[in-house]
Design goal:
The complex is a heterodimer of chains A (816) and B (118).
Chain A lengths: L1 H17 L9 H5 L18 E6 L6 E6 L4 E4 L3 H28 L3 H4 L4 H10 L1 H14 L1 H19 L8 H6 L8 H16 L4 H19 L59 E7 L10 E9 L1 E2 L4 E7 L2 E7 L8 E4 L2 E7 L5 E5 L9 E4 L2 E4 L1 E7 L8 E7 L5 E3 L10 E5 L8 H9 L3 H8 L7 E7 L4 E6 L14 E2 L18 E3 L5 E4 L21 H12 L5 H8 L5 H13 L7 H11 L10 H18 L15 H10 L17 H20 L8 H5 L4 E2 L28 E3 L2 E5 L5 E5 L17 H5 L4 E2 L13 E9 L1
Parallel strand pairs in A: 1-28, 3-7, 6-23, 11-20
Antiparallel strand pairs in A: 2-3, 2-28, 4-5, 4-22, 5-24, 5-25, 7-8, 8-9, 9-10, 10-18, 11-17, 12-13, 14-15, 16-17, 18-19, 19-21, 25-26, 26-27
Chain B lengths: L1 H13 L10 H8 L5 H23 L5 H7 L5 H29 L4 H4 L4
Helix pairs in contact in B: 1-2, 1-3, 2-5, 3-5, 4-5
Chain lengths: 816, 118
């Protein structure tokens, strides 16, 4: 009797324990069972002959999907709804967990699955008003029949895929974290667009700039933080381009306000946004197109490589979309219908980020701690409040936070001088209702230059340089996006939230955004640098990404003739370091070599013999890339650091100008020492410091100092914590100021080259694979080629029954 | 004989039932027809099914997933993970079969014959 009961109890207990999650670990029973668990997530190679037919709800007609040997789906549908339905379906099939995670990150819902650890990240999304922006955008998107059809189709397709999953089919990350995929909603697409706006246009440095202004005054601030690079620049729109439009009246400038509070205790209120990391150089991109006269084909050739966070699965998903009015190939963002960067039979396009200042901070004065009113134009104006609820795994009650909105935006940022509550309102393009999706929808179907220009007018943000080429031999580039009409330097410093004159005063008309068509020089290009030279009548921003990549690209393209796709591929992989060419000869000239030890001298000789190529095996590149930041810190850190009051550092261009043209300036002196240091002193000490750093991290100078090893590019799984899902160590050259902008964790997330012509010929690759499943042969099948700088020829089909030796599986979605 | 019955029935039922069906099948089989070594036979049957199917899935995918999960769990490779998997499945099966056998024995008039059958 006892034995039987003990045995039964033991069985039940064991099953109970195995069926429950153990802390962060998943429930072991379902996780390990080969019938339901992770064993189900290993995939065998695809049978190239296989044909599959699925019966699905709500399709209007049948859809045929041909896969090619790299895992790219080619979708053939008979109408838009079915086209985006199928795109949603195949994207979810390959990337469901990525879609779930990225939507949660954007909407501040990570804590529902990850618990308290991610609460701060969620709060940040809520405080920025991601939901506020997404809801406003959804309303507009659903009111236009084109975007509505696409969103509803895509949503139905994703849900059709989710619905037919049983728990054994869930992507492995769901099994590891012990949760289920939830229904897809159209607003998720808006959240994905918000997330892109946040990544590319979601930062500001005006608090740091206001601190500089307060410490050094206007004159020095103007000298050290000029509105256009002082040493060198090669703007997106070629200098000298005429602006033949009637410009709007520029709003009158107000005097920069000072908000310094003598009683301030420099403490951040608890419920404010955290300190933003400075802009990472390496998030940016290159694109260009050469005209027919420069190509061997007699037609334009276009190239694009957007630089983003490199991850597995990749941020991009390749797809071909074919319907009666569409036949487009390119990369999409999982969660967003249509192709974002790509080509069709007639045109090709690509994007790079514009560093437009579309994120401003306004100092707000509340009437009292209820924050029901704020001071605006000499009266108390009521605020609006929005309650954010964050559900946290393992806790019954959601975390509640009340976000106060003014007409500027949510009051959630802080300049560290306030008391209990944040006092800086965020005015951000991410809150501006728009239907950015239409730009991509229309580009997908564009036939010519006019279609392209029309598509540009829908774009809100994050502002992008849209490069364009067509088979009528046009090339063009447009600085696209809604750009606020501002007075000069409006938003360079914190703005006064009580003055209407400091508000954004409308928009630059889309037709007056900088653009150029078929310029004299025979090519168009961009690399995140200044949009225009100072002759452009409107203010876009005072600082853009550094100019070196653009300078190199424009030099190479100017010299190019009889170019083909491979010439442009080589330029995408160009490792030439313009920064080094600019400053290294002078630095080596002033360096006091007599005081160096023999091993330091050996390093110096290596550096002096360098060809300025950031090649993977270069040791000189490692020394230079270590030395430059050390030199910049040595020049500025003594004057530009203060506890609790972060200060902006002068740019790289300004630093190089100082070294080359103003070697006698006081900034070289370290104010923290009694001695008076000069440029040669600082060059010497920072050179030695750089060598010491390399020595400490990599031992004495040897092949272990090779640039690829020092830089150590890595591609992590999106979880950032499941190391076995990461890519193996990579051997890559490049660098942040180099055309091949591969850094430790950022780089060319998609490289594409398209030869326009009667039939387009296109090449492309991204570092990863189409499948997000680490157990799939398509998880990182493209990685090696990407690492080698090679491209895949892209399979562009005109009909579903075309035979192509690279086609494999066929999937038919059959209307139920 | 019970070994084979458990292997077949549990394999089929696991195709559409949750994983814990492996705690029901051996119980039912040994309740239905008590036999020798209920623990060992049940353990072996479930462990065998999990081992064989897991091994097949490991093999066709070249261990792409199992080797990585093993690493996450600090095991050296997918084969060790496979052994752990089989051990856990076996333990559930074994205890379940034993319970079925012993509970059946509690029923009036059954105990003396139970161990002599089959």
């Amino acid at each position: 009797m006892a034995k039987a009961l003990i045995s039964l109890l033991a069985t039940i207990t064991l099953v109970y324990i195995l069926n429950r999650p153990l802390g962060p670990a998943p429930a072991l029973g379902p996780f390990l069972s080969p019938f339901t668990g992770i064993w189900q997530n290993g995939e065998k190679p695809v049978d190239p002959e296989s044909e599959e037919v699925l019966k699905l709800d709500s399709l209007k007609k049948d859809v045929v999907i041909r896969y090619d040997d790299t895992g790219v789906p080619h979708i053939f549908a008979e109408n838009d709804f079915d086209l985006y339905y199928a795109q949603g379906y195949v994207t979810a099939k390959d990337r469901l967990w990525q879609m779930d995670l990225q939507t949660r990150a954007a909407s501040g819902r990570l804590s529902e699955i990850l618990g308290k650890a991610t609460l701060e990240i969620d709060l940040q999304s809520r405080r920025l008003g991601m939901g506020y922006g997404a809801e406003a955008n959804l309303k507009l998107a659903m009111s236009d029949p084109r975007s509505r059809e696409a969103l509803l189709g895509y949503t139905a397709g994703v849900n059709a895929y989710i619905r037919q999953l049983s728990s054994r089919d869930y992507p492995v990350e769901f099994k590891l974290l012990g949760y289920k995929p939830e229904r897809w909603e159209p607003i998720n697409t808006m959240y994905m667009l918000e997330q892109m706006t946040l990544n590319l246009a979601g930062r500001s440095n005006e608090v740091n700039m206001s601190n500089v202004l307060e410490k050094y005054g206007k004159e020095i601030t103007d000298q050290l933080f000029p509105d256009y690079p002082m040493l060198q620049e090669s703007p997106v729109i070629p200098a000298g381009t005429k602006w033949d439009f009637k410009k709007l009246l520029i709003p009158a400038a107000t005097s920069a306000s000072r908000f310094s509070d003598s009683l301030s205790d420099y403490k951040k209120p608890e419920n404010s946004l955290p300190e933003r990391e400075p802009e990472i150089e390496g998030i940016g991109s290159n694109n260009w197109a050469i005209g027919a006269e420069k190509s061997i084909t007699g037609y334009p050739v276009l190239a694009n490589d957007p630089h983003l966070d490199l991850s597995l699965p990749s941020i991009w998903y390749q797809v071909q979309l074919h319907a009666p009015e569409t036949n487009v190939y390119g990369v999409s963002l999982p969660g967003i219908p249509a192709v974002i960067i790509g080509f069709n039979k007639d045109i090709a396009w690509g994007v790079t980020n514009v560093d437009a200042d579309v994120f401003d901070l306004y100092k707000i004065r509340f009437k009292d701690d209820t924050r029901n009113f704020y001071w605006y134009e000499n009266q108390w104006k009521p605020t609006r409040k929005r309650e954010e609820l964050i559900y946290v795994k393992g806790e019954k009650e959601p975390v509640r936070e009340e976000i106060v909105y003014t007409h500027h935006g949510p009051v959630t940022d802080s300049d560290n001088t306030s008391g209990k509550f944040p006092t800086l309102a965020v005015k951000w393009i991410g809150h501006e209702p728009g239907n950015t999706f239409l730009t991509f929808y229309e580009l997908n179907k564009s036939r010519n230059y006019d279609d392209y220009r029309k598509a540009m007018t829908y774009f809100v943000g994050p502002a992008q340089n849209f490069v364009f080429a067509d088979n009528s031999k046009n090339i063009a580039i447009t600085v696209s996006g809604k750009l606020p009409l501002k007075y000069k330097d409006q938003g360079k410093f914190v703005l006064d939230g009580s003055k209407a004159a400091d508000d954004w005063q409308g928009w630059i008309p889309a037709g007056q955004n900088p653009f150029v068509k078929n310029p004299q020089r025979g090519f168009v290009s961009s690399a995140n640098q200044s949009s225009t030279d100072p002759s452009y009548p409107y203010y876009i921003n005072w600082v853009f990404s550094p100019s070196e990549r653009a300078i190199r690209i424009n030099e190479r393209l100017s010299a190019m003739s009889k170019a083909n796709a491979d010439s442009l591929r080589k330029l995408q992989n160009d490792n030439y370091n313009v920064t080094a060419r600019t400053i290294l000869p002078e630095l080596l000239h002033i360096l006091n070599t007599a005081a160096l030890t023999p091993s330091q001298k050996a390093s110096l000789i290596t550096l002096a013999n360098w060809d300025y190529q950031n090649d993977p095996e270069s040791i000189a590149a490692s020394i230079f890339e270590e030395w430059m930041p050390a030199l910049r810190s040595a020049i500025w850190n003594d004057e530009f650091s203060a506890a609790g009051k972060p200060l902006e550092l002068p740019s790289r261009d300004r630093t190089m100008y100082l070294v080359l043209k103003q070697p006698g300036e006081k900034w070289f002196d370290n104010v923290n020492t009694p001695e008076k240091e000069t440029l040669p002193d600082i060059a010497f000490s920072s050179f030695k410091a750089a060598l010491d750093t390399l020595n400490n991290r990599h031992g004495a100078m040897s092949p272990s100092w090779q640039w690829s090893k020092v830089k150590a590019t890595e591609i992590r799984h999106l979880s950032r914590s499941l190391k076995p899902f990461n890519a193996p160590p990579l051997t890559t050259g490049g660098g942040s100021s180099v055309v091949n902008a591969t850094t430790k964790r950022h780089g060319p997330s998609w490289r594409m080259v398209v030869e326009l012509g009667p039939e387009p010929k296109a090449y492309g690759i991204y570092p990863g694979g189409q499948s997000g499943n680490p157990g799939s042969p398509y998880y990182m099948n493209m990685l090696k080629k990407w690492e080698n700088g090679e491209l895949n020829e892209l399979v562009f089909l005109s009909s579903p029954d075309r035979s192509d030796s690279r086609l494999t599986k066929c999937l038919t979605l059959h209307k139920k | 004989m019970n070994f084979i019955i458990i292997v077949i029935i549990s394999a089929v039922m696991q195709l559409f039932m949750p994983w814990w069906i492996v705690a029901v099948v051996p119980f039912a089989v040994y309740f239905w027809r008590p036999g020798n070594s209920p623990f060992l036979a049940s353990f072996a049957a479930i462990a065998f099914v999990w081992l064989a199917y897991g091994f097949y899935l490991h093999l066709i995918s070249d261990g792409a997933m199992s080797n990585r999960i093993a690493e996450i769990l600090s095991l050296s490779n997918g084969y060790i993970l496979l052994l752990v998997t089989a051990l856990i499945g076996g333990l559930v099966g074994g205890l379940s079969g034993l319970s079925g056998f012993l509970i059946k024995g509690l029923l009036p008039g059954r105990l003396p014959h139970a161990s002599s059958r089959n």
